[in-house]
Design brief:
The protein has 343 residues and is α+β, with helices and mostly antiparallel strands. The chain has helices spanning 59-76, 96-101, 228-261, 265-284, and strands at residues 6-13, 22-23, 40-42, 51-53, 80-81, 84-85, 106-114, 122-135, 158-164, 166-170, 173-177, 180-187, 195-203, 207-209, 212-214, 217-226, 299-303, 306-309, 311-319, 324-336. Helices cover 23% and strands 36% of the residues. α3 (228-261) runs antiparallel to α4. The longest helix has 34 residues, at 228-261. The relative contact order is 0.19.
Length: 343
């Protein structure tokens, strides 16, 4: 069981909403499917009709948002889109409701670093949340799982209490940020390597510091969750692919050196072909698929056999989760403030 713990979250900002290129979301199944670049995504083959706009040139932020949001959406998307066919119906991870019911009180301390299309930052500090397994039988934001196109994949909306309001400082001094009607849920599809823990809030008004602002919105934070065995297997798969990729890169470099040293133009061309082939084989490993797989230094324990990834995502929502739009706000990073060991 999980003892009471405290976690601190850092949310990186999202900037530069300016791109109109269209990409399509590929599904994250029990294997690691390739995700498109995070530019402007319109999922036009599923009922959710979601749209995303590019929000940062920061490589870490792009990678984090790209994989974690897509990971969450793939968990709740309808059975078929873009040529991938899920079993019908899609089943919840066996025992997920019992896992959520067994969750003991968990305290989270949150820091958000928000910025949209501007170098200015809105740093929200000191937001302290408490998660419990009690059913959220009060008015709360719609959640991507229980209120989405695949509600059977959710363990149900659970109680989230704001112990301390977040705050930020502008030219006029210290200001509190209200986060109302909070709740959380866990989403996990059967045979998927990981699930998602999602916290949702209502932000009742706009908060601004210089050019950066947190809009009036439904705010969500999402973190991948793993079992110990599932993470170990994913890490083994990741290392296997990375090892193959390193081998192809080494082969490419060797063939390139041979090409430069060769005097015979035919031999030079052969080595160039070999180098290009090795480069193509490296690309085919699709190592970016495994960016979502953390090391054990990048997870914190939720329960004896349940691990929370320290990198997550913040986003807002307009409309329902069956038909509406997401807007990315930032990447979330979590650190644990307990001495609990994972093993």
């Amino acid at each position: 069981m999980l003892s009471t713990s405290t976690l601190r979250c850092d949310v990186s900002s999202a900037n530069n909403i300016d791109t109109e290129s269209v990409y399509h979301l590929h599904t994250f199944t029990s294997q690691y499917q390739k995700y498109p670049p995070l530019e402007y995504i319109n999922i036009e083959h599923c009922n959710t009709n979601l749209e995303f706009k590019k929000q940062s040139q920061n490589p870490y932020l792009r990678t984090t948002m790209r994989f974690y949001l897509f990971f969450l959406l793939a968990s709740i998307s309808p059975n078929t889109f873009h040529g991938f066919l899920f079993p019908n119906p899609v089943d919840i991870k066996k025992g997920l409701v019992e896992i959520v019911d067994a969750q003991r009180t968990t305290t989270l301390e949150v820091k958000m670093d928000i910025g949209t299309n501007t170098p200015s930052r809105l740093n929200v500090n000191g937001l302290v949340l408490e998660l419990s397994s009690a059913v959220a039988d009060y008015k709360h934001p719609m959640m991507p799982g229980v209120d989405g196109p695949q509600p059977q994949l959710s363990g149900g909306a659970r109680t989230l209490t704001v112990l301390e309001e977040g705050w930020f400082i502008d030219m006029s001094g210290k200001k509190s940020v209200k986060t109302l009607n909070g709740c959380w849920e866990m989403i996990w599809r059967e045979k998927a390597p990981a699930g998602s823990l999602v916290c949702g809030f209502d932000i009742p008004e706009k908060y601004k510091r210089n050019q950066a602002f947190l809009p009036e919105c439904r705010l969500y934070m999402s973190f991948p969750v793993w079992t110990k065995y599932g993470l170990q297997q994913a890490q083994k798969d990741k290392e296997k692919i990375l090892s193959k990729a390193r081998g192809f890169l080494a082969e490419k470099e060797l063939e390139f050196e041979k090409m430069q040293a060769a005097q015979n133009p035919i031999v030079k061309a052969l080595h160039y072909r070999n180098a290009a082939s090795a480069q193509d084989m490296w690309r085919r490993q699709n190592i970016e698929h495994f960016d979502i797989v953390p090391s054990f230094d990048e997870v914190v324990p939720l329960q004896d056999d349940l691990l929370l990834t320290t990198k997550g995502l913040a986003f807002s929502r307009e409309g329902s989760f069956k038909r509406g739009k997401h807007f990315l706000l930032g990447a979330v990073r979590v650190s644990c403030h307990t001495d609990n060991a994972i093993f």
